Amino acid sequence: MNTPHRPSGASGARALVLSACLSSYLLAACVSAKPAPDPNADARVVAGYYRVNEGDTLAGIASAFGRDTASLKRWNGLEQPDKLAPGKVLRVAPPPDDGKPPQIPPQRAAANSAACGPGKLAWPVSGAVQRAFGGRNAPDIRIDGTPGDIVKASKNGRVVYTGNRIKGYGLVIIVRHDEHLLTAYGFTQRVLAKEGDNVKRGQTIAEMGKAPLLFEVRKDGKPVDPAPYLKGCES
């Protein structure tokens, strides 16, 4: 009889630390045994759609794609949104006739040494902001782009985490810039830096997935609005 493999040594300790919580990096963002809806999970579904998995909720899917539940209900004609059948394909992008004005990319000043000083962060991607910062209920911003677009580090720092074990972030890379500030880049399709790497502002660290990029800034462990840090600074 084969004996089940058990992690040992450093690898076992690392698994226990991750399963307990990554509080050192994202405080309340803990590891979950069941991952949140991953916008990159099923390549067979065309862009703008998502295939429901066992245990998915409409609120969770809406959050993963930066949408609101009311829009998903309307786009999909859902009368009982609390009963999502696994395998059902949902529209998660606005239909052409949704009636909302097109999003206009924010105006950004050209980068210069003063604008991108020590206290500033460079834009990780060049798309329009799809969802603004909203405090506790929206602790990040979502930035549009195309799958495969490069994601750049916003500031010099050290990669402290890469992976998909933090609920609600998909495949994420986290960079610590100093003892107070870190940035997180979520819902990527490929990470191009590894834990422990030192990265420079503007260095390519990941590729965008099918969903808008989740960009989060934390200061002393608490999410803060990225807008003041990004204003006037390009990567």
Describe this structure in words.
It comes from Caballeronia temeraria. Residues 1-28 form the signal peptide. This is Peptidase M23B. Pfam families: LysM, Peptidase_M23. There is one protein chain. The protein has 235 residues and is an alpha+beta fold. It has 2 domains: 34-96, LysM domain (Membrane-bound Lytic Murein Transglycosylase D, Chain A), CATH 3.10.350; 129-230, Glucose Permease (Domain IIA), CATH 2.70.70.10. Helices cover 15% and strands 24% of the residues. Strands 3, 4, 5, 6, 7, 8, 9, 10, 11 and 12 form a 10-stranded antiparallel sheet that branches. Strands 1-2 form a two-stranded antiparallel ribbon. The chain is elongated and about 50 Å long.
Whole-number radius of gyration? 19 Å
**Total of helices:** 5
Which quaternary structure do these chains form? single chain
Shape annotation? elongated
Mean model confidence by pLDDT: 78
Structure summarized in a few sentences:
With 235 residues, the chain is an alpha+beta fold.
Key descriptive features of the protein:
single chain; 235 residues; alpha+beta; Membrane-bound Lytic Murein Transglycosylase D, Chain A; Glucose Permease (Domain IIA); ten-stranded antiparallel beta sheet; Peptidase M23B; Cell_wall_metabolism_enzyme; metalloendopeptidase activity; M23ase_b-sheet_dom
